[in-house]
Amino acid sequence: MKSTAYKKVERMTPAMRTIHWINAISMIVAVATGLYIAAPYYQTLIAEPAVDKYVMAWNRWGHFIVAIIFDVTSIVVAYLYFFSRFEKPYKKVLPTGKNIKEFFAVLINLLTLNRSKSFDSSHSDSFNTVYFTIFHLLLAWMLFTGLQLYVHGLESGLSSIGSWWPAMLHLVTDWTIPVSAWMVGSGPVPSIMDVRISHHITMWLIVVWVVFHIYYQVWRTIFWQEGDIAIAFGGSKFVKEDKEA
Amino acid sequence: MGTDKQEAVKSLFTAQSAKVDTNRGDTYYEKLYDQCRARLDALKKLAPINNRRDFRTVIEEEGLERRDFLKWASATTAMLMLPASFTPLVAEAAMVMNRVPVVWIELQDCAGNSEALLRSDGPKIDEIILDIISLEFHETLMAPSGHQAEKQLEEAIEHFKGKYLLFVEGSIPRGLNGAFGTIGAKAETFIDHLTRLSKDAAAVVAVGSCATFGGIPAAAPNPTDAVGVMDVVKGKPIINIPACPANPSNMVGVLLHYVLTGQVPELDSLLRPKFAFGYRIHDNCERRAHFDAGEYVEEWGDEGAKNNFCLYKVGCKGPMTFNNCSIIRYNEGVNWPVGVGRGCIGCSEPDFWDKYAYERPMANANIKAPTGGVEKTVDEFGLGLLTAAGVGIAIHAAASAVAGKKESEREEA
């Protein structure tokens, strides 16, 4: 084995890493509480008085808190997607010839088990950026459907922060009803239950997304031998000097 | 997507909110009071239609006291979200109800809504009012049949042209050009029947889940292509009173509102009156504290059931259902589904048979794939996806371990 000089490449700023781990923790909490809200999977002790447990209420509280954190990071991510000074992800998903070529080169690299690798792996590639974009579209759908489910409890049109809040939520999220009905398959009239089913199925899609995401980053680390897994922690990876573009 | 669907989508997109204004200020109510006063005075000058019986006589014959009637009048005033000062007007409106003509038709249905208002435990004021309204035509209740019945219908719609309220019970089958449901000797299809009768109606009131959203006939696979009234009738005020059966109190509420003001009540995006469907069942449920506490009936008849725990895990859909039955209940406030220990099946929501009535939490309910294919529960579907992803990853990982080339190996090669 020849000795080669490696060069450090910065890939995630501290802000990006913070968002990454806030999202990861939020997601674990959202899935754990969301599954309980969908079908309560543990029992509370019957002997305890109701006032001491409040189990569903705490689960819903936790779900809403992480949902709001998610909503805020989503807005930040959406901003950085187009205006980041570090790296603008949208540039990598535009269907230009260069991006399409890179997308398939990365896919082929994955499918040929790293026997072929004909792209620059020092920077965020087109394949990973598309994958990242899919995730954030799923999250955005969860945001809109979740707020639609939430506003059902504000049917009085009032809230502690004013009537503008439920009014705005209706304005911004009512479109998810017909869209969910179209996706889930509905009768003559769309129903709010379609939104709930869609919200739940999308959770599973996100879980599947996460499973592949973790596998793929570990796989890259093992096979590319460029320390990719460190990106999410230290913010940088290492590439051979001669390879750095 | 047809024009009807587009309209439905449009109305959903422009839905403001289910907000119910319980206080619109003195000026509004003073103006409304004067309008109602004028309308009632005008109606009083008219004679009761077809020698309908006087309300006061019927009340006396049924052995009800004036006090019962006044109690009912104030409760109904509150239900309609009017100030207490309107109580005398509501009482007067009840007495002139026999001056507003109603035509009631049945389409693809089980007559459950007619049953609901007939089979009460005893004649109560809501039912009496439905007895004395000028019901000009009702296939199930009327004595004549065949050509005589048809003649009566033709006369009624001719005589009360533009004035009658058309109550519709049952969905409208559109498949086979409507041949799934026909009526009369000339085999008029339900679509034609409804279209013809609604043309000269003052307003159309869809009663029950079938007439509003298609209900059970429209459940998957909807063999007759059944839809509700609002997907067929255009250009008429439509009021939806869903639920299976619709609550007679809400039917009377809509009728009274019409008699009182001459207008349809304020409606939500699904054309349901907000006074009745502006509430979520869940928020006024007597078992709500158990929901928040996480105390659920795990199976029928268990310790939780004996302690009136929340029915969410046996499939209660109260959190997704808008209706006032947790407040006004059924049969003059005797009880309601959650009160008797079984969950809400969301009967006043669209698509309730497929999406609400399966007596399990949504995550454990069978849903159809968008292609209409195999039924799986939502969680089975999700776990299936996850398993498929897991298998794919396992194969890729195994293949990588066996045949993959790490960067260092690749360069040596």
Structural write-up:
The complex is a heterodimer of chains A (about 240) and B (about 425). Chain A is mainly alpha-helical. Chain A is built from ten helices and two strands; from the N terminus they run E-H-H-H-H-H-H-H-H-H-H-E. Chain A is elongated and about 70 Å long. Chain B has three domains: about 250 residues, Rossmann fold, CATH 3.40.50.700; about 80 residues, Cytochrome-c3 hydrogenase, C-terminal domain (Cytochrome-c3 Hydrogenase, Chain A, domain 2, Irregular); about 40 residues. Chain B contains 18 helices and eleven strands. In chain B, helix 4 packs across helix 5. The longest helix of chain B has 26 residues.
Give the helix/strand layout.
The complex is a heterodimer of chains A (245) and B (413).
Chain A (H helix, E strand, L loop, with lengths): L5 E5 L3 H25 L11 H4 L1 H29 L6 H4 L3 H15 L14 H26 L12 H10 L2 H9 L7 H33 L6 H4 L1 E5 L5
Antiparallel strand pairs in A: 1-2
Chain B lengths: L2 H11 L12 H20 L9 H7 L4 H14 L7 H9 L5 E6 L5 H7 L6 H8 L1 E5 L7 H14 L5 E5 L2 E2 L8 E2 L4 E2 H10 L3 E5 H6 L12 E2 L10 E4 L6 H14 L12 H4 L10 H6 L9 H4 L18 H4 L23 H4 L10 E3 L6 E3 H26 L3 H6 L1
Parallel strand pairs in B: 1-2, 1-3, 3-7, 7-9
Antiparallel strand pairs in B: 4-8, 5-6, 10-11
Helix pairs in contact in B: 4-5
